[in-house]
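REQUEST ID: PR-0412
SUBMITTED BY: lab tech R.K.
PRIORITY: routine
TASK: structure prediction, single protein chain
INPUT:
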Amino acid sequence: MPITFVVSTGRAGSTLLSRMLALHPQILSISEFFAVLMGILRRDPYPSEPMDGAELWRIASAPDPLADAMVRCGQQVPEMFYPYDSGRFTASSGIPIISHSTLPLLSDDPDGLYDQLAAEVPSWPVRPAAEQYRALFALLARLLGRPVVVERSGGSLPLISLLRREFPDARFLFMHRDGPDTAVSMSRFPMFKLGVMATEAAQEAGLPLNATMDEITASLPERYLGILSPPYNLRGLSDVRISPVWFGELWSRMICSGTTMLAQVPEQDRSEISYADLLSDTEGTLTRLAGFLGVTASGQWCQAAAGLCDRSRPGAAGTLEPDLSARLEAACQPGREALAAFLGATSHDEIATLR
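STATUS: complete
OUTPUT:
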């Protein structure tokens, strides 16, 4: 069963794309599965040893304390689809990480789908992690009658080489958005704020950037106590200010490394779309994407997908004061050049139209 991975820097419109794909009757639109496995708690989604179904289900069904704290503190984000007011699970008792984003996009009854998986997955034999994940996708495809599997995790661009190694037949859809707008959106997004805090805490503790949260919290700086450690009080997260320039530099690094990895993927196994095109030419963009995925772009699907678009919001970077805007533009310049080279654009003006 071939899998298509939507890869992006995050805050590039890929959640909207997941919701659009979920409207297609043949597409299994798996949202944030690998983000769930990695978690806010910075897990490694690929254990070095094979696992059985019971271990897979333990990982997928375990609560994520920080994700639950986001819900309790009113900081949940649009990628978190679970019916928190009416679902069986609550943030106070712990919500399975697979239930925050992945299952609710697949079914109007995510708790019922959870029960179906819980009845089968724990009995599976020992297999490498990638084979277990592939089996889980196949089970969901069979249960829901949706044979075309598309997984989308925000910020997954750095995972391309790993995904190619673990899924040799995988295909990739690169979704991109202009750097300054992406960076401003990142700077306002709770999960990116938490990511910056975790990175800063690791650096202050002299730990590697890929340190786990358990390692970080063992020597957590005092200013992060209660935020990156229990009781996870995130109510002040909205007031945290991190310069979009920091995220512009992050965007550039991700685009430079990501496009290098994508260039190594055979052309027939990769495609790309921009957030701007998805908004301005929804039908044309989805028709091209449907051809890549091997499904039909019916008028009914395109019309329903277009109804999800909010075209009223201006570019986020357009509201910045001039000095900050200039510094952000400079931070994004390396990424813009790498993106232009990857797309085969002839000038930066063409990339600027992606906003």
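NOTES: The longest strand covers residues 171-176.
REVIEWED BY: pending
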